[in-house]
């Protein structure tokens, strides 16, 4: 397993949260126009916000391997879900066009025994894959509240 070979050298003082939001704020395309609002609410719920481009491969593996809940916009960065543990919650958000690759996430989730949820939100330009979009923060937080009740009670 790749994680076992890479992790021994990883920084153990890295983000310790079990709840992770993968931000795309460093991206110039497919921006969520209200991502800052979503991040603020998730931080209040105990989530750490990460930007994958600022992390080493080892750090990415460790974060995903230790996470119980990961939320992020559909895209290549979420392929790190292969490092999530069984029964982890994996929430993919984006537009219908962005989530066209959700079959890939579904296959990974099935193989890894992950709990996958996919949210489709409207694009500001439904013809353009790279268009900006807006998340319904309430929908995400309702799901998060349900999950946190489970994890707090169950662990």
Structure, described:
The protein is of the alpha/beta class. It has helices at 2-6, 35-44, 57-66, 102-112, 137-154; strands spanning 19-22, 48-50, 69-73, 89-95, 115-121. The protein has a 5-stranded parallel β-sheet. α2 links the parallel β1 (19-22) and β2. The longest helix is centred in the C-terminal third of the chain and has 18 residues, at 137-154.
Task: Offer a quick outline of the entry.
The chain is α/β, with parallel strands linked by helices. 35% of the residues lie in helices and 17% in strands.
On the 0-100 scale, what is the average pLDDT?
85
Low-confidence stretches: 1-13
Q: How far apart, in Å, are the first and last alpha carbons?
A: 26 Å
- Assess the beta-strand content as a share of residues: 15-25%
Spatially, the strands of the biggest sheet line up as 2-1-3-4-5
Oligomer: single chain
**Helical content (DSSP H or I, runs of 4+):** 25-40%
Secondary-structure element pattern, one letter each:
HEHEHEEHEH
């Amino acid at each position: 397993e790749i994680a076992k070979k890479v992790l021994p050298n990883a920084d153990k003082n890295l983000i310790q949260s079990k709840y992770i939001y993968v931000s795309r704020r460093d991206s110039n395309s497919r921006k969520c126009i209200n991502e800052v609002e979503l991040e603020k609410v998730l931080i209040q719920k105990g989530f750490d916000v990460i930007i994958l481009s600022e992390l080493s491969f080892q750090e990415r593996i460790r974060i995903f391997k230790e996470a119980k809940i990961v939320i992020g916009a559909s895209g290549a960065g979420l392929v790190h879900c292969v490092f999530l543990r069984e029964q982890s919650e994996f929430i993919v958000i984006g537009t219908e066009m962005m989530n066209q690759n959700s079959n890939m996430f579904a296959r990974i989730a099935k193989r890894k025994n992950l709990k996958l949820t996919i949210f489709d939100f409207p694009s500001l330009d439904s013809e353009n894959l790279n268009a900006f979009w807006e998340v319904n923060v309430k929908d995400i937080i309702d799901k998060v509240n349900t999950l946190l009740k489970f994890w707090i009670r169950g662990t």
